[in-house]
Specification:
Largest sheet: 5 strands, antiparallel
Helix content: 40-55%
Distance between the termini: 13 Å
Structural class: alpha+beta
Number of strands: 5
Number of domains: 1
Strand content: 15-25%
Number of helices: 5
């Protein structure tokens, strides 16, 4: 259900409330074409955490970008990747060429979140059972 007030609040929060950290693109070595987007305040320890999730595969960063608005950049990058990818899995994994994924991330670094973005972000979370 569309809720203009919630979309407005989310867009304001994403644009005005700093969330200092890093947005990254990650791949599993040898797994051709799948890219994950994520955010963290500690890239080194986050990468180690993937060993728990994928104990028989090695993950590596494609790129890690510092930002003062990691929540906004990650959310907008997810929306951009959804539009460009061949396929997606579990909201944050995308079948896409790495250079195209980097281009999506870079294009979202200075972009402001609109109410329309907020609506899509909220719908994406609901589809995944996150809110």
């Amino acid at each position: 259900m569309y809720n203009a007030k919630k979309e407005h609040q989310l867009s304001v929060r994403l644009n005005k409330v700093p969330s200092k950290g890093f947005v990254y693109l990650l791949r599993i070595k040898g797994d051709d074409g799948w890219v994950k987007v994520g955010k963290t305040t500690k890239p080194a320890s986050r990468l180690l955490g993937y060993k728990t999730h994928y104990p028989f595969k090695e993950c590596e960063y494609i790129t890690v970008i510092p930002t003062d608005y990691m929540n906004r950049v990650e959310s907008l990058t997810i929306l951009a990747l959804k539009e460009k990818c061949e396929e997606s899995l579990r909201r944050e994994w995308f079948k896409i060429k790495e250079d195209a994924a980097i281009e999506c991330l870079n294009s979202c670094l200075k972009k402001e979140a609109t109410k329309e973005h907020a609506k899509l972000i909220r719908q994406g979370h609901k589809l995944e059972g996150l809110g």
